[in-house]
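Hi support team,

I submitted a single chain yesterday and got back a structure, but I'm not sure I'm reading the C-alpha cell output correctly. Could someone confirm the output below corresponds to the sequence I sent? I've pasted both exactly as they appear in my results page.

Thanks,
R.
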Amino acid sequence: MNRQFFAIVLGITAALSMPYAASADLIFDSSLGGVTGSGLGTVSTILTIQSPGSTTTESGSVSRSGGADVKSDTGVLASGGTTNVGDVKTGASQTLTQTFGGNGITKASQIAIVFNAAEPSGNSITLTGLQMSVFNGNADIFDAHLAAAVAFPTTFTGIGKEGFVFRLNTAEANALQTVLNGLTSAQVAALRIGLSASASDATGGPETFNLATITAVPEPGTLLFVGTALVGLGVWGRKRLLKAVAA
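Hi R., thanks for writing in. Yes, this is the structure output for that exact sequence:
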C-alpha cells in the first residue's frame, strides 16, 4: 500500500516537472452575460477572424516568438487538432497579444476572454475551438483549452460590442495562480496572452476576442468587467449582463 502511494506521488511529481506548458480548461459562463465596448481599439482585442469568401468556417491565432507577435490563419479545434481555413485579420488593433499589466490583471481568477460574434441580424454561430496561452517572453507557460464546441443560437450585433464570456474554472485558475506566484509582480505584469480559435456557421463577421478583467465586488455572485479604456457598469435583462462603457 505504501509503495503504491509513493509510486503515485512520484508519478505526479515527475509529470509536473516535465518541460511543457501547464494546461487547463476554459469554460463559457452564461451567468456573466457579456460586456460592451465601442468597437475595435477601445477594448483589448486579441484576435479577429472572418470566414473567407462565401465560406462559413473561420480560424486564426496569435502567439509570441522572437520577441514579436506571430499571426496565423491556423486555429485550434476543441475536437482535437487544428484548422487553417483563415482568415485572421492583421490590423494593428485587430490581432495582437495583450499584457497582464496593461489590463490590470494580477490574479488568474481575473482573466476573462470575451467572444463577440458579429453575425448578420444576430444569427447563430458555433465556436469550434478556443485556446488561451500565457507567454513569459517567448515561452508558452500555460495553456487553457475549450473542452468542447459551444453553439450560440443567437449573437450580438456590432463589432467590438457585447460578447460571450469565457473564464478559467476555480480549480484551473488556482493552477495558473501557482505559476504566477513564482514570478515577481513586474514579471506578472509583462506576461502576454495569446489566442487560437475557430468557428463554424459563420456567415458575417469579423468575429473578435478581447481580454477583460473580472473583479469581485461585495454582492455575492456579482462580477464587474473592466477592459482597457472601459469604465462604468450596466445590467442587461434577466441574464444580468454587465456592461463596461467606453470612456
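A quick pointer for reading it: The two ends are 62 Å apart (CA to CA). Let us know if anything else looks off.

Best,
Support desk
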